[in-house]
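[Q] Does anyone have a clean structure-token version of this?
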Amino acid sequence: MHISRRNLLRSLGTGAVVGAATSTLRGWPIAPATEEALWRNSVPMSRLPDGATAADPILLYRNENPYGPSEKVLGVLRESAAIGNRYPRTEYETLTDKLAALHKVKREQIVLGCGSGEILCMAAAAFLGSGKKLVQAAPTFPALGKLAQGAGSEIADVPLNKRYEHDLSVMLDRARTSAGLVYIVNPNNPTGTITPRKEIEAFLTKLPANVIVLIDEAYHHFASPSASYESFVDRPIGDPRVIVSRTFSKIYGLAGMRIGYAVATPEIAKRLAAGFPSWSVSVVSARAASAALDDVDYVRLGIKRNADDRQEFMNQVNARMLRAIDSQTNFVMVNPMRPPDEVIEHLKKNDILIGPKYPALDKYIRVSLGTPSEMLAFWRAWDLMPTTGKMAM
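[A] Here you go.
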């Protein structure tokens, strides 16, 4: 059955929302949810991009921040548009100094990039190439693997362990010969899982001294406080081989602005930046990122909001007796207990886009968390899927 997003959202008045949350559709139980929880901090129509309507697809496939940047940052974006004809002047220095102060490092240890994707490009150019192996998990964020392939590097893909953590013992074995770079995404994409900090520290002590380690902390802010996870930027270990990458795309809601950065030793930072233009971040992006760092209350709100949204999503998963990998990010890997291709296609027909399939987890789908109203539309569409009798166990 096909239902347009326009009709879906139009039908989701407060009464319909609460009613749907406490009723049963096609025999599937719907987890109880209060009106406050369902509509908590939803993006109003006034915040939709110019030209967007309720008929546009619900985007649950790129792990974006569905709430967007803060109002303070939006104000800076509007003001900065007027100087879009100018190259950056002091904006880079201001942002670099703020990041250095935030992380308690020297400004020479900060490298800005056009998204953290450019940081990955820098790392590939500096530490990979013919005869230099990339060691990474499988599955993980694929961009660096593609860059390594283009650079002529051998790629050692190491399957995650049974807990969906990086299998560091196998990665260590693969890194002992001709490795140029080890890539650790923590929390990992697409699984959303944590590899315990103490295990990474032990791994580093055994790694050959000439191998660089890039720890991608794109989803750092979403990880729940625990003894297992602590950022290598917030508590560095003084290992000169460690590079940490961060992005403004996630908690700060600036994916479209394309801005990220790395923290490394001054020497490694120079190697990263070598051969890359120093002006790849726009004046508008630099100003927006600087304002985002200042708005600490919005970051705290985003962390809490994501934790609440993630818990609500898990409530709905459990109510339908589905399976999900415990996530510490703003997305969840779900086993829909039916062929994933059918689910992806059904949701697409209902104007809802979710993440791609990953060969190493071919029974799962990845769902980025949207606003409460978007997620309610997601579950409404889910519960309209025809029963096929085929189960993906």
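[Q] Thanks! Anything notable?
[A] Residues 296-319 form the longest helix (24 residues).
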